[in-house]
């Protein structure tokens, strides 16, 4: 029997080898013998979204269609929420519900998801869940870089043939690049959008700088009403306007990988579940291919849906915020609150809010890569992102 090439590569555990160096997002691939493929698989060493889109969805995104610059290949899009939300889920628990349905109906034998460690609710612990309880234990975001792919070796060893992987863009890019080596008959990928992730230490700095009670935060989200919502252990909610964030302090908190990422909307997942293109309180669903539709069909009777909508014009707000972001300007809290209220009333909504968020992050990230890694700028930034950034006037 010939040994697959990656099995000859000895994984170092925990891996000290991170070929992407400071741009590494700790996706977990390098903790396994699949490190053998890192040069071609790593999202930060080999940007290959268009090629992988063509392999997975049957075509890459249509660059003549502006919506595809933003949201990628899709065959359906909607707002949805669970009729009976799962308590303690990030939003209404559509992700956990789909995973549980796939497992209990026998479509998959295991689900790659991320629980937290016993002593720290925000410290990620990737697992292959084999029971609904194990999936539920992974609900809610661990808003930190998470080595989800570190469990890949266990898949091959377990002999599993049908698998669901839940993950964010950089994890899914590396997964798609090694998909053929995993020995699976069927792989389903349920993605979430992701932006501005942090290391565990960075998360602490963010909580300490932004929340009135960092140690009791159980959940937070940057919401469509232009505020960060923190939920505390006692059930209370604290909101802080985006424009009041201490940008100077927080400038270096986000991981360099996330400052260099142009896959906010998880282009290579079969189905994406986020919130940013949906009205406040609803989740945003993007069906990228037939496999994604198959997954969504499992929960149709458990969700309410409505069409996506788009209101307002983001462009001025994005252009004006570029220098503020760049220089790390922080508004006094009264001005931030006022600006938040005004923007919430007249600002972009629905898909236009999603475009606002994508434009703001892509322009910031483009400047970051240009200044810190000019040698990779041209290859690393996908064509759709160059077109998005090209709509704005950027400082040098
Ligand atoms: P739940 O049922 O609560 O399940 C959450 C799932 O997320 C779990 O299965 C768990 O395995 C997985 N997960 C948790 N933490 C991580 C992690 N660090 N890496 C990979 N997987 C993880 N949506 C947007 O529209 N805009 C955003 O800017 C945005 N940023 C995000 C940033 C991060 C780090 C994450 C993890 C998600 C982000 N999302 C974003 C998605 C959104 O916050 C919700 O996760 C999504 O809508 C699903 O909600 P739910 O209630 O259905 O999930
Ligand atoms: Fe390895 Fe993943 Fe880091 Fe790239 S991002 S160097 S594949 S662990």
Which features would summarize this protein structure in a list?
396 residues, alpha+beta, 8-stranded mixed sheet, 3-stranded antiparallel sheet, 13 strands, 18% strand, binds flavin-adenine dinucleotide, binds iron/sulfur cluster
Gap between N and C termini: 57 Å
Bound molecules: flavin-adenine dinucleotide, iron/sulfur cluster
Low-confidence segments, given as residue ranges, are: none
Indicate the multimeric state. Answer: single chain
Q: Mean pLDDT, nearest integer?
A: 92
Any idea what the radius of gyration is? 20 Å
- In total, the number of strands is 13
Number of helices: 16
As a percent range, the share of helical residues equals 25-40%
In which order are the strands of the major sheet placed? Answer: 3-2-4-5-9-10-1-11
Major sheet summary line:
8 strands, mixed
How would the global form be characterised? globular
- Our estimate of the beta-strand percent is 15-25%
SSE ordering: HHHHEHEEHHEHEHEEEHEEHEEHHEHHH
Class derived from helix and strand content: alpha+beta
Structural write-up:
- There is one protein chain.
- By secondary structure, this protein is of the alpha+beta class.
- Helix content is 35%, strand content 18%.
- The longest helix has 22 residues, at 351-372.
- The mean pLDDT is 92.
- It has 16 helices and 13 strands.
- β9 and β10 (283-287) form a beta hairpin.
- Bound molecules: flavin-adenine dinucleotide and iron/sulfur cluster (SF4).
- Iron/sulfur cluster (SF4) is lined by residues 18-20, 24-27, 29-30, 38, 42, 44, 174.
């Amino acid at each position: 029997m010939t040994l697959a090439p990656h099995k000859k590569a000895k994984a170092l555990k925990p891996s000290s080898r991170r070929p992407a160096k400071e741009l590494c997002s700790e996706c977990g691939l390098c903790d396994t013998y699949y490190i053998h493929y890192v040069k071609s698989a790593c999202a930060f060493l080999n940007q290959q979204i268009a090629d992988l889109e063509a392999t997975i969805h049957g075509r890459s995104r249509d660059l003549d269609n502006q919506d595809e610059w933003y949201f990628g290949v899709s065959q359906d899009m909607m707002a949805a929420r669970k009729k009976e939300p799962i308590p303690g889920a990030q939003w209404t628990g559509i992700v956990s519900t789909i995973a549980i349905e796939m497992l209990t109906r026998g479509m998959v034998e295991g689900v790659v998801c991320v629980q937290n460690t016993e002593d720290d609710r925000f410290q990620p612990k990737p697992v292959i869940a084999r029971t609904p309880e194990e999936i539920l234990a992974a609900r809610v975001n661990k808003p930190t870089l998470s080595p989800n792919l570190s469990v890949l070796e266990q898949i091959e060893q377990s002999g599993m043939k049908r698998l669901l992987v839940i993950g964010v863009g950089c994890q899914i890019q590396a997964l798609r690049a090694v998909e053929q080596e995993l020995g699976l008959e069927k792989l389903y990928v349920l993605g979430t959008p992701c932006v501005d992730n942090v290391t565990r230490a960075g998360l602490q700095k963010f909580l300490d700088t932004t929340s009135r009670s960092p140690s009791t935060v159980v959940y937070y989200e940057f919401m469509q009403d232009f505020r960060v919502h923190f939920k505390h252990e006692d059930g209370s909610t604290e909101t802080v306007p985006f424009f009041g964030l201490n940008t100077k302090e927080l400038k270096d908190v986000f991981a360099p990988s996330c400052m260099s990422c142009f896959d906010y909307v998880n282009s290579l997942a079969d189905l994406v579940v986020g919130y940013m293109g949906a009205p406040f309180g609803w989740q945003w669903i993007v069906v990228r291919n037939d496999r994604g539709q198959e997954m969504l069909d499992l929960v149709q009777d458990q969700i309410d849906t409505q069409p996506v909508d788009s209101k307002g014009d983001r462009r001025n707000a994005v252009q004006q915020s570029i220098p503020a972001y760049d220089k790390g300007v922080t508004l006094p809290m009264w001005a931030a609150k006022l600006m938040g209220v005004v923007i919430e009333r007249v600002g972009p909504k629905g898909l236009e809010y999603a475009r606002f968020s994508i434009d703001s992050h892509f322009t910031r990230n483009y400047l970051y890569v240009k200044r810190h890694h000019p040698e990779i700028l041209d290859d690393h930034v996908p064509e759709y992102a160059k077109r998005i950034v090209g709509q704005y006037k950027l400082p040098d």
